[in-house]
Design goal:
12% strand, single chain, alpha+beta
């Protein structure tokens, strides 16, 4: 059974279950495609911080870079990311998604960050770090 954990966000409880290996790799690849334009903004990213939001960055610059990458498939990808999530015990269906985040997108953004952190997509389990350790990517000194 996959590990799951409850996260309270803005008055609701979100239960996140870790992705299986295949789905996790697929989500991480797609997430990398969405986030690649903003990677330069996080050049001083410290994976040791408790949350990726604890790093110093210009939020306006991040939002602008991210929005430039959005397309018609973005909602489908967000729904894909939310498949292993339950909100206050309810499965995250499209209807539950619409009702939960209608006119209130900040909890959605916070939830996506928790999904990223809980699945170790960045930081300790970062593919970039693994590639550098395996000497597939050059290590910057």
């Amino acid at each position: 059974m996959m590990k799951s954990q409850d996260f309270p966000i803005d008055g609701k409880t979100y239960n996140i279950t870790r992705y299986g290996a295949r789905e996790g790799i697929g989500v991480k690849i797609k997430l990398g495609q969405y986030l690649s334009p903003i990677s330069k903004i996080f050049k001083n990213f410290d994976p040791k911080k408790e949350s990726i939001l604890d790093n110093d960055f210009d939020l306006d610059e991040v939002i602008e870079a991210f929005v430039m990458k959005l397309d018609d498939n973005t909602i489908d990808f967000i729904l894909r990311m939310l498949r292993p999530v339950r909100v206050d015990g309810a499965e995250m269906t499209e209807d539950v998604f619409d009702q939960t985040f209608a006119g209130d997108y900040l909890p959605l953004y916070k939830l996506i960050v928790k999904i990223i952190e809980f699945n170790c997509f960045f930081g300790k389990g970062s593919i970039t770090k693994m590639f550098k350790k395996a000497q597939i990517l050059p290590v910057k000194e």
